[in-house]
Design brief:
single chain; mainly alpha; 53% helix; globular
Length: 312
């Protein structure tokens, strides 16, 4: 199996590549993109949570302990004395960090259910729930973070399978097939429990319409294709492969900030003035990157319907 350094290095590269595409598409505010990218990096090491002495396991339970201890503290802040709050906070911290950690590893097996596609789906949905319900992020951002988590998780499982192949000795190691699997056939009840937990998470998950509509946006993918290569010299200095120059008057360009736009496009007035026709947002308008976070269509838009451009 790949070691921790390899997992987090490759996971960071994959998450960084996805973050670059997301930034180019301009579908989410930069401050939210940082948290979304970190979800992908976390997913790349999360499967090793079932390895008792691994760094992901210790870090995960330490983080859970801190989160739940302060959640309990804030919830009981007005009901108990200071001494009682100290005891409650410290007790919760120790119970989760060491008690829950110990119980979890007694009932889990390394390369068991946590090394499966089913677990990847479960962790992705939980990520969406955390972003939506606890961090108060828009539904589109929550599912974007879930997608990053899922791809990071799958990167970990794929790396483990690759390392199960001994290329020099041209043989398969005994661990081959134990990481990238749909569910754990060796521990049937663990798979049933994970399936039940996944179903429960789906019930609590945020709506998916914003995210799905955004991924299906034709303008989104056309815009990414349009920005894939430079239109002139690379970095303004070096000649190389590049796309044809944008045609100012005859070739329509697209907005890449179209993911998650659920409201129908506004109709162009029947007799617009030349000035308003040049500035109004329409499928044939020249591409102009939005100036602020309000133009990110995956984010909530202002009540007046503006999205960083001129009013229709």
């Amino acid at each position: 199996m790949a070691n921790f350094t390899t997992h987090i290095a490759v996971g960071t590269i994959v998450s960084g590549a996805l973050a670059t595409l997301t930034l180019a598409a301009n579908v989410v505010a930069p401050e939210n993109l940082v948290a979304v990218t970190m979800a992908g990096v976390l997913g790349s090491v999360l499967p090793d949570i079932d390895l008792k002495d691994s760094r992901p396991s210790r870090a995960m339970f330490a983080g859970l302990a801190i989160f739940f201890s302060f959640a309990v503290l804030f919830n009981a802040a007005t009901q108990l004395s200071i001494a009682e709050l100290w005891i409650l906070w410290l007790g919760t911290l120790l119970a989760v960090r060491y008690g829950l950690h110990s119980i979890f590893h007694r009932i889990s097996v390394h390369r068991g259910i946590w090394h499966s596609i089913l677990a990847a789906v479960f962790c992705a949905i939980v990520t969406a729930i955390v972003f939506y319900h606890l961090l108060n992020k828009p539904a589109g951002v929550a599912w974007l973070a879930a997608a990053f988590m899922f791809l990071g998780y799958m990167t970990h499982l794929t790396l483990d399978e690759i390392y199960s192949v001994d290329v020099m000795d041209t043989r398969l190691k005994s661990s081959f097939g134990t990481a990238l699997k749909l569910f754990d056939r060796r521990h049937f009840y663990s798979s049933v429990a994970m399936a039940a937990a996944t179903f429960g998470a789906i019930v609590l998950s945020p709506p998916t319409r914003t995210f799905v509509d955004g991924l299906g946006s034709r303008d989104l993918w056309s815009g990414l294709e349009h920005r894939l290569l430079p239109t002139d010299k690379w970095f303004g200095l070096v000649d190389g492969p590049y796309l044809a120059h944008r045609q100012e008057a005859t070739s329509p360009s697209v907005e890449t900030s179209s993911i998650g736009r659920s409201a129908p496009e506004q109709k162009v007035p029947e007799a617009p003035s030349p000035a308003s026709a040049a500035t109004s947002e329409s499928p044939n308008a020249q591409y102009v990157p939005p100036a602020d976070a309000s133009a990110h269509a995956i984010e909530p838009t202002p009540a007046n319907g503006s999205s960083g451009g001129a009013a229709p």
